[in-house]
Amino acid sequence: MTSLTEAAGGAAPTIESVRRGVGATLCAALAAFIIGSTLYGRLTVWVQYEVVLMLALGALFALRPGPLAARPALDALLALALTTAGALAGVYMILNYQDIAAYREGLPNGWDLTAYVIGTLVVLEGARRAEGWMLLGVVLAGIAYLAFGNLLPGWAGHRGMGAAEVFELAYSSNGIFGVALGSVVEIVYVFVIFGVVLRLSGVGDFFDWIAGALSMGRRSGSAQCAIIASALFGSINGSAPANVVANGAITISMMHRAGFTKAYAGAVEASSSVVGQIMPPVMGVGAFIMAEITGVPYANIMVAALVPSFLFIFSLSCVTALEAGRLGIKPPEGLDGTWTRLRVTQMAVMVASFAVLLVMLFAGYSVDLCGLGAIAALLGLAVLFPETRPSWSTVGRMLVDGGKEGLSVAVACAAIGIIIGAVSSTGLGIKISQAIVALGQADLFLALVAAAACALLLGMGLPTAASYLLVVFTAGPALSQLGLPVLTTHMFVFYFAVMSAITPPVALAVFAAAAIAQEPVIKIAMHSLRLCTVAFLFPFLWVYQPELMLQDPTLATLPATIGALAALTLAVVMLAAVQVGHFGGRLPWAERLVLAVCAALIYVPGALSTGIGFTVGGAILARRLLAYRRQHPDHEQEVAP
């Protein structure tokens, strides 16, 4: 029998190597469980969620160091104790959940309460290791509100709860095992695995190549490449910070070598990773969750996201193009746009897998089964070509990484379930909704601003799925009560929840970019906010110009829709020129001010204001562009993408 020492090549296994091995095994088991239950049928809801949470917590404790990291042996014992405690609580609930639901809900016995307390505390520590102290602080604040809400004055207070009630709520289907964890188990994890298979098969490299090919010969080519690649891959992985980590090491250094500052390059990467979360067809898995919650067809959601995602990407492209012109950056070298057999193969496999995904979605299959079909198509086709054929070790790594890359979002969403439970059970969500509705009765715009602020605040420090789910149950009902359509309400909330990834003080995408760029967080955050100025305006446009959501594409509305899109596109160029202060040369302050006013007139609903802004602003940009062309007939200046 082979000993551990022999298996390690003669070296005795260390505590760290054993933890990595255990963590990898649990991650692979988690991915296999998700795939198997999707293919052959899920277990009872409570059992399904418990199994996923137990595996995720065990893997997380094995792979993430704890407070005793300086003493590896003690930290390993702590990880083992936490994993065992979480497993015991989970197994107890699996064996007793039917009796609890039938006879003891609201009247837990001693063993029930012990399982609730242990299970909740283990999840809280998992949340801390998954997303840091910020998430833990928010969840603890929710628990404190449950327990001591009776001490708060006025509308913020409630009757208060005893410790037993708090822990029972936390470790129930209204808390940890609620809709947030359910969305991860039933929807998100399959697409996390899909993204991993796309990346490890090499097919995902086509994103980077096509981004480079499209940006060849441009001053801002390095930045355009980062924007396109990060937006494409960010649409699949469902986490802007994770996307920054995956792509930033390459794109940030590439932009810096081209001539952009490191802080600016980090901001471009963070901003373009955010774009991917609202870009069809996957929208960081948000589209599928939204369809599940609202009942709105997936096709409608995908179409509604087309205009904002296009304008967001176009805005980033404009700003970086003008910034490159202002800095006098030369077109980058080394971007290869040559079509090869490898690129054709990658494109064919990728297009086919996405085609399977969309065809199954429109055919009415469940979202998780559609994701599994895309994975099967991707692997099945990849095996046929030597350029993309994965080895058995790569397939094993796909299972391990597929489980690992979903750990944070799974545990974070489990913890977020406690907040959702606190908001709903105490009536706080209703009170917040009533406050927003009261504002809306006086002024709809003020209500929208309040809802946006709520989304940005509650979404801070959370993955896309978790932030959306938390915010939509808090601010969403208020907007619906104000008469906004369901899709408009959810898109508004979703958009701002996604934007929280670059909004200080807790901007996870910015933190990830700062770690790679080795620049202060605040510098990158300020650049990101400036780059995304236009993006913060789009959700308001959906409310006041609903034709932009493309939900009523008739011949009668077509001219108005085309006109609005043309005006908004020009407004994006105007604001880019105002931000950079450059358009075919340095832009004087007087012209920047006029262009800013013209862009504002376009964003204000109304044919007259839009016509004035479009005409005056367009004339200024056209005059400057023609003047530059006359002065430099043999030189192409990149004034806009």
Describe the protein's architecture and organization.
This protein is an all-alpha fold and 641 residues long. Among the domains are: 154 residues, no CATH class; 86 residues. It contains 30 helices and no strands. The chain is globular.
Sequence-ordered SSE layout with sheet pairings:
Elements: H1 4-7, H2 15-40, H3 45-63, H4 72-104, H5 110-131, H6 133-148, H7 163-170, H8 179-200, H9 205-214, H10 221-237, H11 240-258, H12 262-276, H13 286-294, H14 298-304, H15 306-327, H16 341-362, H17 367-384, H18 392-404, H19 407-425, H20 428-442, H21 444-459, H22 464-472, H23 476-481, H24 486-499, H25 508-517, H26 521-531, H27 538-544, H28 558-580, H29 589-603, H30 607-631
Helix pairs in contact: 2-3, 2-8, 2-18, 3-4, 3-19, 4-5, 5-6, 5-7, 5-19, 6-19, 8-17, 8-18, 8-19, 8-22, 9-10, 10-11, 10-12, 10-15, 11-12, 11-25, 12-15, 12-25, 12-26, 15-28, 16-17, 19-22, 20-21, 21-22, 21-24, 22-24, 24-27, 25-26, 28-29, 28-30, 29-30
Helix content: over 70%
Helix tally equals: 30
Low-confidence stretches: 1-9, 636-641
How does the major sheet shape up?
none
What distinguishing features does this structure have?
globular; 0% strand; disordered N terminus; 30 helices; 641 residues; 74% helix; disordered C terminus; mainly alpha
